[in-house]
Design a protein that fits this description.
The complex is a heterodimer. Chain A is of the alpha+beta class. In chain A, helix 8 runs antiparallel to helix 10. The longest helix of chain A has 17 residues. Chain A is globular. The relative contact order of chain A is 0.14. By secondary structure, chain B is mostly helical. In chain B, about 75% of the residues lie in helices and about 0% in strands. Chain B contains 13 helices and no strands. The mean pLDDT of chain B is about 85. Classes of the chains: A alpha+beta, B mainly alpha. The interface between A and B is large, with 67 and 82 residues.
């Protein structure tokens, strides 16, 4: 103990000084429900799981940031809360040229940014060019875009290199393509400040909460609450307690094992609806024996999706074999695999595989449900002679190993999909940027390419359905389930709509 | 004293190399993590260049060291804020919790340890042993959640978590401090109780105490002058170690109680592979350990003149 007597008293003094200077900057959680507020109403306090990393919509990829930004920024178009088709937002209407290569958007009039400046076509051109020129987070959404031009202050023309029927979904899917004022990136520090056209303005943010105030001049009319306070409560039990004792009025951090018991609870309003997300398992085509389609089919047959879903999500999910959830226009009801251990064993035998074999299954503790699901899958594969080695790593390592192809199999989800293109294209086309498993099927490539530029919805759906059946039969992905969006709020809170894309919007909320 | 300063600077230089090396050895690419799952190669290259990660490691190190010597710990990859401002924002919360926890720990440990030592193997001693064993072995997140469910949920006496500065609202400050301080205090206190008991026992059994008793000195005088003074030495050490541990962030307790301290910051930095923040935080933890060690040494000298040299 006494061998490490180190450092001078002056260093101790310096530390104390740092501490004092830090003390001046207050970390504010507010108290009860009051606090910041621009308008007439009270402040809505909500509990979210984590702190936003930053507020630049074009740079961040973090969901906690988008929970806040959803209420601060607008996009040209926005998904309708019910069926997620695109409806007007900053653009009032849009049309496509005959050849499908030119999109003309008519912009809303009398819209002002939070700094008071007027919104017009130049802001759209600036925002999109910023994303493309600086290769920011969402640049991939503009892959087909050749140019963005202002025809007049109220009209924007977007030229694409090939027909892109999902352009509205790409431009309006979420706030990563938000419109910021022309020159905003030079004028403001967008990582900590926000200048949107949305219903709330960003007031302040600290290590324990983010505060928004109602924007009185919002084009859609001022919100009914005076503001929103996002408190970060990582522990679901604590978030639920905060909701039950009235510290907050809304949370999406609900302990999954309590979903069922909460449904009968008088003190909490709980809703659980299917989301646009899906969870899947993927096998490495370059590693034997997983390159053999019979082996993949054997595994797909041995997995009991219902049991996996029940264990991982406590029932708050729908088992699925094709990614797109039931009810969507593009959904397919193709489901060739029945959970059957005996049939699976036979397929494995047909493949000529000497059992037992060992299979690594890489999951990440960033998404604990994958760890649970992996354990269930391990138990299901054991009887057919596959010894599953569940490898739980943190997300950064997981992403690295996925990119390097250093896995037998892995499990993850795709979140926030809107168009079938999001669900299938980059994951299954040969050399697709997200085709980490190494799948290649010339017919699937042809179908996916044709579907990506097909403008007739019915034809497009048929093309996707043909591709989907081959993807499922080849087990490019082993689809597991579509999880539910689960959120809870105080009884009597009105004007809030739970959405399948997990966007949370407090514009119309009225407190009990 | 001058030699000690020299030694500490050498150690600190070593620590900075190790910190930088270790942080960069951790697998996981911060650029890939920042971009999420869907991105283009162009975006990847652009961000890598912007964060300076395309530079050779040795250049990155000397760049970082040079700036760190001037008090500039860099800018967070994740938030774009300076590392110093992020650490400064969280220091008050960490200091508050650490000192409150030590207070709770000592309030538990000194009486409990003393009573146990005065009546070894008595019922009181056994109960105290069981209690401290419980405090050491119960997971702190479990204790935290139970407290939240009871005091915030069922009874509704306290808020479920969060932090309010003392200067802003002393009542709200204390309300939010109670539960996390209790959890960390019980854990630290349990450890310290053991030390108090054993060092007290040792002091009671030492020759000079027996001599003093034989000389017929009053018990109270023997206790304060001979037993307590000797027993205090290990107590200072173990309290110092516990304090350093608390100041380095009690990650689990901070997460459970939504306490915006350094532990939470360091955890987020690890998860995001936010190298600048991680390096800054670890360097600060190293300095905290060094400083507390020095203070412990100084206290030693004050209590026990034999160590003075």
């Amino acid at each position: 103990m006494r061998t490490t007597r180190l450092l001078s008293l002056s260093a101790a003094g310096a530390l104390a000084l740092t501490a004092c200077s830090g003390g001046g900057e207050s970390v504010d959680t507010g108290d009860g429900g009051g606090g910041a507020g621009g308008g007439g109403g009270d402040v809505l306090a909500v509990a979210v799981g984590a702190q936003p990393d930053q507020f630049d919509p074009h740079v961040t990829s973090a969901y906690p940031s988008f929970q806040v930004l959803e209420n601060v920024y607008d996009t040209l178009v926005v998904p309708n809360p019910d069926d997620l088709t695109m409806e007007p937002s900053l653009a009032t209407d849009w049309e496509t040229s005959e050849d499908g290569l030119t999109w003309t958007f008519t912009l809303r009039e009398n819209v002002t940014f939070h700094d008071g400046s007027e919104f017009d076509a130049a802001d759209v051109v600036y925002s999109y060019n910023r994303i493309m020129d600086e290769q920011l987070q969402n640049a991939y959404r503009f892959e087909n875009v050749e140019s963005v031009e202002a025809v007049d202050p109220q009209t924007v023309e977007i030229t694409v290199s090939q027909p892109t029927p999902n352009l509205p979904a790409l431009l309006g899917g979420f706030k990563g393509t938000a419109i910021i004022p022309e020159g905003a990136a030079e004028e403001y520090d967008l990582t900590t400040e926000a200048v949107g056209t949305g219903p709330f303005t960003l007031e302040s943010s600290s290590a324990s909460s983010t505060e928004l105030a109602a924007y009185e001049d919002y084009w859609g009319g001022a919100p009914s609450v005076g503001g929103v306070e996002f408190r970060y409560i990582a522990e679901p039990a604590a978030a639920l307690t905060a909701l039950e004792n009235g510290e907050v009025q809304w949370t999406d951090n609900v302990p999954p094992q309590q979903i069922e018991s909460l449904q009968g609870d008088q003190d909490v309003e709980l809703q659980s609806i299917p989301s646009v997300d899906y969870w899947y398992m993927s096998m490495n085509f370059d590693r034997e024996p997983f390159g053999n389609p019979l082996v993949r089919q054997a595994i797909a047959t041995a997995v009991d999706r219902e049991a996996v879903t029940e264990a991982a999500r406590f029932g708050a999910a729908q088992a699925n074999q094709t990614a797109i959830p039931e009810g969507n226009f593009f959904a397919s009801d193709y489901a060739p695999f029945d959970a059957d251990t005996e049939a699976a064993r036979q397929l494995l035998q047909e493949a000529g595989v000497q059992t037992p074999i060992t299979m690594g299954l890489m999951v990440t503790d960033e998404f604990p449900e994958t760890v649970t699901a992996a354990q269930v899958i391990a138990a299901q594969l054991e009887p057919i002679g596959i010894d599953v080695d569940v490898q739980t790593v943190d997300f950064a390592t997981w992403l690295d190993r996925q990119a390097q192809g250093d896995f037998d199999t892995f499990m993850l989800g795709w979140l926030g999909n809107l168009d079938p293109f999001d669900y299938y294209h980059s994951q299954h086309i040969t050399d697709g940027v997200n085709n980490y498993q190494g799948y290649s099927n010339a017919e699937v490539d042809r179908l996916l390419l044709a579907a990506s530029s097909e403008t007739d919805p019915d034809t497009r759906r048929d093309l996707y359905h043909d591709a989907i059946e081959m993807i499922v039969d080849d087990v490019s992905y082993l689809y597991l389930y579509n999880p539910n969006v689960v959120q809870a709020w105080a009884p009597g809170l009105t004007g809030y709509t739970i959405r399948p894309d997990r966007a949370i919007n407090f514009e119309d909320v009225e407190l009990p | 004293m001058v030699r000690r300063v020299g030694q500490s600077l050498v150690v600190l230089a070593g620590v900075s190399v190790v910190v930088f090396g270790l942080v960069h050895l951790v697998p996981g690419d911060p650029v890939r993590l920042a971009l999420g799952t869907r991105f283009s190669q162009e975006s990847y290259d652009a961000l890598r260049e912007r964060s300076g990660l395309d530079q050779p490691l040795i250049e990155q190190f000397f760049g970082w060291l040079g700036r760190a010597l001037q008090g500039d710990l860099g800018v967070s990859f994740r938030s774009g804020e300076t590392v110093t401002s992020q650490i400064a924002e969280r220091l008050p919360a960490t200091l508050t919790l650490a000192f409150a926890s030590i207070l709770v720990a000592l309030l538990i440990a000194i009486p409990l340890g003393t009573i146990s030592a005065l009546r070894p193997r008595s019922l009181v001693d056994r109960v105290a042993t069981v209690i401290s064993q419980f405090g050491i072995s119960v997971p702190d997140f479990w204790m935290g959640i139970v407290l939240i469910l009871v005091f915030a949920g069922t009874l509704g006496w306290l808020p479920s978590g969060g932090y309010v500065p003392l200067t802003e609202d002393p009542g709200a400050w204390l309300q939010r401090l109670l539960m996390p301080a209790l959890v960390t205090g019980v854990v630290s206190g349990s450890v310290i109780t053991r030390f108090v008991r054993s060092s007290m026992l040792e002091a009671l059994g030492s020759d000079h105490v027996r001599t003093a008793q034989a000389k017929g000195l009053p018990t109270r005088q023997v206790f304060t002058w001979h037993v307590l003074r000797n027993a205090l030495l290990p107590l200072v050490t173990v309290t110092g170690v516990q304090l350093a541990y608390l100041l380095s962030g009690v990650v689990v307790v901070e997460i459970v109680f939504s306490w915006p301290g350094l532990g939470q910051l360091a955890l987020q930095a690890v998860q995001a592979r936010d190298y600048p923040v991680l390096q800054g935080a670890i360097l600060l933890f190293a300095v905290v350990f060094l400083v507390i060690n020095l203070i412990v040494d100084l206290l030693y000298t004050a209590i026990d003149p034999r160590i003075r040299r």
